[in-house]
Amino acid sequence: MPTDFLDLLHASLPPGAVSTTEADRRAHACDNSRLNALPDAVVFPTEHAQVEALVRACRAHRVPLTARGGGTSSTGASVPMAGGVVANFMRMDRILRIDPDNRLAVVEPGVTNEALQQALAPHGFFWAPDPGSAPWCTVGGNLACNASGPHAVKYGSTRDNVLGLRAVAGNGEGFRCGTQTTKSAIGYDLTRLLVGSEGTLALITEATLKLTPKPLAVRTLRATYRDTAAAVRAVARIMAQPATPCALEFMDALALKLAREHQPEAGVPAAEALLMIELDGAPDALDGAVAAVESAARVEGLVQLEVARDEAQTRALWAARKALSFAQRAATQHKINEDVVVPVSRLPELVDGVRQLAARHAVPIVSFGHAGNGNLHVNLLPRDVDEIERAHAALPELFALVIALDGTISGEHGIGVVKREFMPLALPATTLDLMRGIKAAFDPDGILNPGKLLP
Amino acid sequence: MPTDFLDLLHASLPPGAVSTTEADRRAHACDNSRLNALPDAVVFPTEHAQVEALVRACRAHRVPLTARGGGTSSTGASVPMAGGVVANFMRMDRILRIDPDNRLAVVEPGVTNEALQQALAPHGFFWAPDPGSAPWCTVGGNLACNASGPHAVKYGSTRDNVLGLRAVAGNGEGFRCGTQTTKSAIGYDLTRLLVGSEGTLALITEATLKLTPKPLAVRTLRATYRDTAAAVRAVARIMAQPATPCALEFMDALALKLAREHQPEAGVPAAEALLMIELDGAPDALDGAVAAVESAARVEGLVQLEVARDEAQTRALWAARKALSFAQRAATQHKINEDVVVPVSRLPELVDGVRQLAARHAVPIVSFGHAGNGNLHVNLLPRDVDEIERAHAALPELFALVIALDGTISGEHGIGVVKREFMPLALPATTLDLMRGIKAAFDPDGILNPGKLLP
């Protein structure tokens, strides 16, 4: 890293904003993937103008620049593969405005998802994206990766819940896009273009988020099925009627077995397939909604359907799903975390295909997750060096299966480094070329997060 | 138009697909704006490959190419300002697939919005965008302009209701973007970038649309208020509670007066401000929702609140809103149709500002429309040459007012020709430059719909 670049950084940014200590560099070398690459410097901006100065300095010296929030990405999206500077946004964590009348909040990117939800709760609102990493991940990271979670089935992903952005493009120019209104038709939608662009087009410095009023009540159901096909028939029937659940989660036989063995006291049913169904709404509306969903869930092959009568029963029903996370961690240190997505009606073929894949490559694979969106976490759980090798050999076949089922390779984790080589499977060359054209328009010197997303 | 270009067109497209007759050219010279420009030729493609051939021919000869559906745009978006070719998509009107299990439909762009809704109804679904021009406008036009309508307040605009597209970029390359799934995180969102791009980036040849289950029941309320401020306080309160209406429409005093005078028998109330509120959902859930909305609507300044008990009463309540369209047409042939949008809480300032504008420029202006989204149709109704001139003089002040209120210049009609010069009011120069960069990446020779959207 040239001295004149570092001098420029120190001159453009306030004292304490630039660090080249070994400790800071090491702390910004990895995320929740297994990738690791040391940056040459770490910058902690506290306001938009500093981000402009930073991008301009990096551009002038052709230094790679990688944005980072909580570092919870599982794809390597925030690992500085080409070295250079990591911009850590955690000091830009202010909630600038909560505006219930207009159903919006204006925030800096470094606020954590959970801190935002806690600030919104007294106003009777929430922000829809609810990734499992909510206590640690930032809104900026959610925007960069188009994060979501179980409630996306009713409330949408990050992309569906943002109105406008302020950002600095790779060319060093600050800009605003989108609106403070819930409707607009004023040219190209740069806001939703930036969502999911994984820091390769621009660094987001402020976001105007769309809020949703908190439902007044929630009801939980759990259903087990003779086989996956039956469970998925139920999913399709549930999604084809108007009482859309706010969560519709699936666990396959191996997921249930792992959870049961790891936590025998959690009451995890021994079944081939399980659905967790959550409904929300006004209290007087929920009986009807539960009845409608219950009726849709009662397909040939249903084994048992339970409706929680109180909070204790609700907790008991969710225990199986909660136990699974710990069970996977206990099963192996080498979990490969995938999040493929297929049209809901193709889920049986996906789950069957994954089972065959597990048998063919002799590696344990669990399938579970957001069935209402057709978005399953297909987690490979290799336990030793041989299984790790076989698991990696199975991955291209998993992605090919998903594409053959009209699905795609990521529902909510994004591409980063780990899925980059698979992008040509998911998208035609002409589409990737258009994406490269957009990249060049925003970041003509390719300084922003090089080596990510686009092959 | 060079002969060798016409020869190439005839050679690349089937017999009957290319017309240079005076009648066809005249029929494609205008839309629902007052603009008029004669194309040199009209092409009626029937499949994707023909659109590729057409774009390539136009690119090779640098001939302007303007896509057109039903021609209902009020902004001149489909008027061929630079001549060249108009591509009329009305012969690509097939509904290729209706897939209730996956809540999606695959259609060609030339199908009308209404024909699609009729095909979906027996499956228990609808497509959310519901512009007033639904019987004539096409899905392709809805996508191009990010159209919506009264139900966007609950179900979103076109952009929120599309999953994937097939298209031909201005560079002549066909591509697919998006997915057949309700979630994805695979790079830049070209799908939502094309929505609202008004045919300046690519021509859409197929769309995968997100469907919504039809609600089982609907209830209608009508409330009148002492003044606009009171009505808008009610709007903000209604939008801040979880029972989101499926329509929340506003009419100002002049709109009510026009409707009343034009159709005395319609029972239009003499009031300063009126709200039409529609709620949908499961029948047993509606009592609670109506009660919640009724309570939110009862603010200081409420004059009267009526709840329709049956279909006849529902029709009677909507009669005022229906009468308004005819009343405006009867009032003048020279209506200037605007659709500005502000944050809901700024609506009183907008309506007051419009009233001052009308007084200052001595031209009648009615304000009404989609209050739940802060999206008002501010229609200037000049009756003679002098008033027309004064109306046009008032427009820049209207847009400046909207921007000062944190709003923007179009909610659902788009930019086209008529608002193009006002784009720098709505967006910073850096943002417009990024849009131009995207335009260059898709359409390097600038053949697609020149003179539209970007100043």
Structural features:
homodimer, 455 residues, alpha+beta, Uridine Diphospho-n-acetylenolpyruvylglucosamine Reductase, domain 2, Uridine Diphospho-n-acetylenolpyruvylglucosamine Reductase, domain 3, Alpha-Beta Plaits, 4 domains, seven-stranded antiparallel sheet, five-stranded antiparallel sheet, globular
In short:
The structure is a homodimer of 455-residue chains. Chain A has helices spanning 3-12, 22-27, 48-60, 113-120, 139-145, 152-155, 190-194, 228-239, 253-262, 283-297, 311-331, 347-361, 385-404, 423-426, 429-442, and strands at 18-19, 41-43, 65-68, 85-88, 95-99, 104-107, 125-126, 162-169, 174-178, 202-210, 212-213, 217-225, 247-252, 273-281, 302-307, 336-341, 365-370, 375-380. Chain A has 15 helices and 18 strands.
Structural write-up:
The structure is a homodimer of 455-residue chains. The first copy, chain A, has helices spanning 3-12, 22-27, 48-60, 113-120, 139-145, 152-155, 190-194, 228-239, 253-262, 283-297, 311-331, 347-361, 385-404, 423-426, 429-442, and strands at residues 18-19, 41-43, 65-68, 85-88, 95-99, 104-107, 125-126, 162-169, 174-178, 202-210, 212-213, 217-225, 247-252, 273-281, 302-307, 336-341, 365-370, 375-380. Chain A is an alpha+beta fold and 455 residues long. Chain A folds into four domains: 3-90, Uridine Diphospho-n-acetylenolpyruvylglucosamine Reductase, domain 2; 91-213, Uridine Diphospho-n-acetylenolpyruvylglucosamine Reductase, domain 3 (2-Layer Sandwich); 215-329, Alpha-Beta Plaits; 332-439, Alpha-Beta Plaits, CATH 3.30.70.2740. In chain A, the strands form four sheets. A seven-stranded antiparallel β-sheet of chain A has the order 15-12-14-13-17-18-16, sandwiched between helices. In chain A, strand 17 (365-370) and strand 18 (375-380) form a beta hairpin. Chain A is globular and about 70 Å long. The two termini of chain A are 26 Å apart. At the A-B interface, strand 9, helix 7, helix 10 and helix 15 of A face strand 9, helix 7, helix 10 and helix 15 of B. Chains A, B: InterPro entries: FAD-bd_oxidored_4_C (IPR004113), FAD-bd_PCMH (IPR016166), FAD-bd_PCMH-like_sf (IPR036318), FAD-bd_PCMH_sub1 (IPR016167), FAD-bd_PCMH_sub2 (IPR016169), FAD-linked_Oxase-like_C (IPR016164), FAD-linked_OxidoTrans_Type4 (IPR051914), Oxid_FAD_bind_N (IPR006094). Chains A, B: Pfam families: FAD-oxidase_C, FAD_binding_4. Chains A, B: Residues 35-214 form the FAD-binding PCMH-type domain. Chains A, B: This is FAD-binding oxidoreductase.
